[in-house]
Amino acid sequence: MISSKISNNIATVIAWLAAFLILGILLSFLIYMLYKGLPVLSWKFIFGTPSDINAGGGVGPQFFNSFYILFLSLAFSVPVAIGAGIYLAEYAGTGRLTDLVRLSTESLATVPSIVLGLFGMIIFVNFLGMGITILGGALTLTLLNLPVLVRVTEEAVRTVPIHYREASLALGATKWQTIRRVVLPNALPGIITGITLTAGRALGETAILIFTAGTTVSRHMPDFNPLASGETLAVHMWYVMALGLVPDRLDIANGIGALLIITILILNMMLTIPAKIMQRRLSGAGR
Please, which residues have CB within 8 angstroms of residue 282's CB and are 6 or more apart in sequence? Predict the structure, then answer.
């Protein structure tokens, strides 16, 4: 029989190999996409206007719409998700309502994005009469964000040590004061991590936005009108490769891919690094 020490070493080697395999796949993907797309990136490409026929068009309106729709969707989903996460972690006991909320969250997380896109088209575009708009896309994208944010918020709140709550309550604070001034500040790094993951996923979403925000852009840039059409970078990449007539569509797709990767990496660092610093400070204060 294999000794426990040998089996432990084998398991450790397998775990390291799996980790390096994942890291290698990620690095090869990033290197390939950046190698293809970085030569395309320029000030004119990133902030210029697109062209349907002539080569040399930019993606400025799509770049703006990507962040505008992301901001609106997070503005809709974050308050609802944090409220639901706090309810599940702090107020909900074991009962039918709690089970129903959790079941709804998990069911929503398993729905394919194209189905959510069809739902958004039926409800927001047709039934409510919004048409193909940025607002309709943001509201539908909210349905994609909610399950992840709710679960992350609940877990982040649950990880706050119980003695933090007990100390606050012992000093005379109410339950809500304890949640607002003690629990949420300590859970904030985990919540920010969830927002970061959700934002990265939302920036690359296509199926939902094709059905709700459309494949065209406003003639004015930037256009803050939420009822204007709002093609994003990911949708524009799909459009130029599937239906586009521009002769340099492959270069445009490569440039968009590199731009999305760089944008998501910068966004992740902007949100993750402050969250890590905050977490270390809170850990030091807790000691």
Answer: 185, 186, 189
